Amino acid sequence: MADLFWLIAAFRPERDPQLIMLLNDVAWIIFTAPVGMIIAQCSCLALGVYLDRHPQPIIPRWVGHFAIAVATATAPAAAAAAVRSGPLAWDGAISSWLRIVAYGAFVAVMFFVLRSGNPPRRARA
């Protein structure tokens, strides 16, 4: 959705600058604030890791702890929709940069963990 608003803002540059600024603000809020999906994804992954009680788990236990840390680091970005300045604003150190760095680290860690993963276990008949 954010890309669509940026596209609309750039499509007619002769528009009133106030309208372009409004579209840009909407795009940044849509891009920054909705972190619920990231938190849910990390929480479900951690739950799956913690519930795997096999001696050789499919995903290492530390990945569950890491997923909870990523969910915790991205949660403050939800304030970006309501805060206009400071570290919790859409362009603040916490709402923007901490979320981007935490999720980037999550993607990198998951790439290597899943790439080097354990072979699948066979189901017992």
Task: Provide an overview of this structure.
- By secondary structure, the protein is mainly alpha-helical.
- The chain folds into 2 domains: 1-32; 34-115.
- It has 5 helices and no strands.
- It has helices spanning 2-11, 17-32, 36-51, 61-74, 93-115.
- α3 runs antiparallel to α4 (61-74).
- It is elongated, with a radius of gyration of 19 Å.
- The mean pLDDT is 88.
Ordered list of secondary-structure elements with their pairings:
Layout: H1 2-11, H2 17-32, H3 36-51, H4 61-74, H5 93-115
Helix pairs in contact: 1-2, 3-4, 4-5
Largest sheet: none
Mean pLDDT: 88
Secondary-structure class: mainly alpha
Distance between the termini: 47 Å
Into how many domains do the coordinates divide? 2
Q: Which descriptors apply to this entry?
A:
2 domains; mainly alpha
In a nutshell, what does this entry contain?
This protein has 125 residues and is mostly helical. The protein has helices at residues 2-11, 17-32, 36-51, 61-74, 93-115.
